[in-house]
Amino acid sequence: MLTFFFTKHGKRELPLCGARGVFSGSKIEEDHLESLRRRLPRGLMSLRVSGMSVFPPVRRDRVIAQLPQAFRKEAALHITEEFNNKVRMACQEQRTGTVGFKISKVIVVGDLAVGKTCLINRFCKDAFDKNYKATIGVDFEMERFEVLGVPFSLQLWDTAGQERFKCIASTYYRGAQVVIIAFDVNDIASLGHAKQWLEDALKENDPTSVQLFLVGTKKDLSSPAQYSRIEQDAMKFAREIHAEYWAVSSLTGENVKEFFFRVAALAFETNVLAELEKSGSRQIGDVVRINSTSSNLYATKKKQANCCQ
Ligand SMILES: Nc1nc2c(ncn2[C@@H]2O[C@H](COP(=O)(O)OP(=O)(O)OP(=O)(O)O)[C@@H](O)[C@H]2O)c(=O)[nH]1
Ligand SMILES: [Mg+2]
To answer: How does it sit in the membrane (predicted)?
Structure first.
């Protein structure tokens, strides 16, 4: 049976069959998360470890009770006003205070300096840095939500846009359920490069199961006339690739929270529908205990060798 305990620094340690990982706050080591995810039985909707929650309670401002609406109906993944009925029913039936455990991997890709890191930092830390610090390889944030009463997490992978770090970053694309392609609304070339970013991300993933978002950044720097010109092109492209289009400003915070809430809600909905399809018997909120002797579940992927100069 899994156990966990507190270290003197308040960190929690999860001994998971040889692959130990330590997490504190919202950061979880990638290896640890990956190995944890691999060990979970298919269809797992929640996890209790030794009868206690692995995570602290969800922040009040991360509770999603209604389906957040799309930014533009003309370029939306879907335009229904409510969560899918099956999903709502499934969640309602299990609203019993059971702690859930459900994670979707989200990767954010796009040209260098379009504002990927700032976008994630505005949402996760409510912070904005006007100085550019290139992301080297990848960064990672975990953001926790409660959707329709069920705990749900987004693993947000902030990847490097600089060519020389792209090789490292692309090794983290695999297993993404959501791909966010960011471009700068003041830089038409960055929109032109979005197609290449998409192709690279989809090489590592099943295109039929990935939800795509095309996000225009730095909206605050654009005049309304300039913005509306690029929006036409961006929406056209978004429709072509079946992505949902958004425009945001990390400086002012415009649409940032709305955008990530929409991502979380749609990812959650898709996940639950997939779960319901896969297993009619398993219910959302089921408590699953992992037996440490089932070692065949625990193969951990070795990281690809660093191929960048
Ligand atoms: N005015 C304005 N500037 C922004 C906004 N978002 C980002 N920036 C600025 O754009 C620059 C690049 O932002 P980053 O978030 O670091 O860009 P990035 O896409 O993560 O870049 P890489 O990590 O190299 O791929 C920084 O100087 C930011 O302050 C925004 O919404 N408005
Ligand atoms: Mg960055």
So the answer is: Lipid-anchor
CATH number of the domain residue 208 falls in: 3.40.50.300
Q: Is the CB of 217 under 6 A from ligand 1?
A: yes
* pLDDT per residue as tens digits for the range 39-63: 444 433 334 444 444 556 788 899 9
Task: Return d(Cα 157, Cα 176) in angstroms, integer.
Answer: 9
The domain tally of the chain equals 1
Closest C-alpha to ligand 1, atom 15: 115
For residue 92, is it within any domain?
yes
Which atom number of ligand 1 is nearest to the Cα of residue 133? 16
Whether the per-residue pLDDT at 300 is higher than 50: the answer is no
Q: What is the mean pLDDT of residues 173-200?
A: 97
pTM: 0.78
Q: In the sheet where 178-184 sits, what is the strand order? A: 63-64, 138-147, 150-159, 103-110, 178-184, 211-217, 243-247
- With a 6 Å cutoff on the Cβ, whether 211 touches ligand 1 is no
